[in-house]
Amino acid sequence: MANRLILIRYGELGLKGKNKHQFIRCLVHNIRAALSGLPDWNIYTTWGRLWVETAGERYPEVVARLQQVFGIFSLSPVLQAEKDLEAVGEAALAILLKALPEGGAFKVETRRTDKNFPLISPEISKATAAYIFDRVDGRWDADMHHPQLTLNIEVRDEGAFVYGETLPGPGGLPVGSGGRALLLLSGGIDSPVAGWMAMKRGVAIEAIHFHSYPFTGEKAKEKVFELCRQLARWQGAPIRLHVAFFTDIQKAIYASCREEYGITLMRRMMFRLAERVAADRGSLALYTGESVGQVASQTLESMAVINQVVDIPVLRPLVGLDKAEIMKIAQRIGTYETSILPYEDCCTVFLPKYPKIRPTRQEAEALEQALDIEALLTGALEKTETLVFKA
After folding, report:
1. Looking at per-residue confidence, does 287 or 56 come out higher?
2. How far apart are CA 356 and CA 348, in angstroms?
């Protein structure tokens, strides 16, 4: 009886040289976290491979969870068989009949790393195909160039492994291997995608959201809560959200400063607040969903003036993407439908009719002279609430 396994390939982690074991250890930890709560599974490693052993009706759920673990390049449901031709043929036939129950074209490819096995790779492939053709009718055929299914056989020291499907993982690096950062989470389409892309590079995130009650209501805040839950599935760990009370800051800006500079000055205050929260939480960078030229506050001139108020690195992973590309990622990762719910954020509510596209540092600093920046920041931080969201 063949044993059911899942073969996990970890892509770029294999290129990490002497640090490779640290990344793999982090990946194994994250896989364990992703599968926690499910019964009857085990994870183990062999040379160049990770394996999850599982069985039963929860098998599809195990596969689905693994497909959301960063650091996994791809995975394959595998049948492990004894190292003899009949057992390998039996496993290959089972996979074929499940994948192509009505018939179709297939081929067999073999990789033999156990050099003590008496047959070489082409001979194993040929023997397996012969085993199959002895047991199926003319609805199944061999096609070496354009098969509907490739039956892969690996003969290794620890056994023979047969699979016919390779499923994509999210790739990237294991979350937690790249440090911690703070995501400016607005509730729109872009910032959750930026958070997802941070995770893909191994960065664990917390989030900060700027809430302007009563100008933005509870529905807008609940929308951000749901986005945190969705991102927590990809992080494989809870996400801490800091909800900063931003109303007094916005009122002060629009009472004392020129309207066209409103977004620029708001963003400068957001960055100041975020930097303080990041310092308190040990975050090493800020992540934003900005893309060059998308809106008035995302010109290079605006970004330069806004960045000037903080010393912490500000990372913008969407900087080279257009809106269609960002929306496509949002749909793929499951945040799009929540992001387009019609609840406005604080920037949308206070958007000037003619925002300044090319602000200058000198003008921004001159306008801020009318603000008690330290008192406004202190007041906002005192009213900030922190919540934790699980998937």
Report:
1. 287
2. 15
Residue 343: pLDDT band (50, 70, 90) is low
188 and 224 Cβ atoms separated by less than 8 Å: no
Q: What does the alpha-carbon distance between residue 198 and residue 316 come to, in Å, rounded to a whole number?
A: 9
For the segment 65-91, the average pLDDT, to the nearest whole number, is 95
CA distances from 198 to 45, 131, 208, 245, 351 (A): 27, 48, 15, 25, 28
> What domain range is 77 assigned to?
3-168
What 3-state DSSP class applies to 308? coil
Residue 9 has which token pair?
A: 């390939």
224 and 142 share one domain = no
Measured between its terminal Cα atoms, the distance across the chain in Å is: 36
Q: 158 — phi, psi (to 5°)? A: -90, 0
Tokens of 42: 């085990």
Q: Is residue 214 reached through a cis peptide bond, with omega within 30 degrees of 0 on the bond before it?
A: yes
Alpha-carbon distances, residue 360 vs 13, 288, 297, 355 (angstroms): 43, 21, 12, 13
How far is residue 72's CA from residue 182's CA, in Å, rounded to a whole number? Answer: 24
Rounded distance between C-alpha atoms, residue 333 and residue 200, angstroms: 12
- Whether residue 192 sits in one domain with residue 83: no
314: β partners: 286
Per the listing, tokens 């995501």 go with 183
Report angle CA 322, 324, 326 to the nearest 5 degrees: 70
Which parts of 113-195 are beta strand (E)? 140-142, 149-156, 159-163, 167-168, 180-184
Q: Find, among 231, 250, 242, 232, the residue nearest to 191 by Cα.
A: 231
Residue with tokens 């250890």: 25
CA 11 to centroid of chain Cα atoms: 15
Contacts of 218 (CB under 8 A, 6+ apart): none
Q: CB of 267 within 8 A of CB of 276?
A: no
What are 209's two structure tokens?
A: 């959201």
Domain boundary among 168, 188, 221: 168
Which CATH number is 50's domain given? Answer: 3.30.2130.30
pLDDT exceeds 70 at position 246: yes
Question: Position of tokens 């990789």?
Answer: 111
Give pTM, 2 decimals: 0.89
**In 1-73, beta strands by DSSP E:** 3-9, 41-46, 49-54
The answer to whether 190 and 298 have CB atoms below 8 angstroms apart is: no
Residue labelled with tokens 């919540």: 387
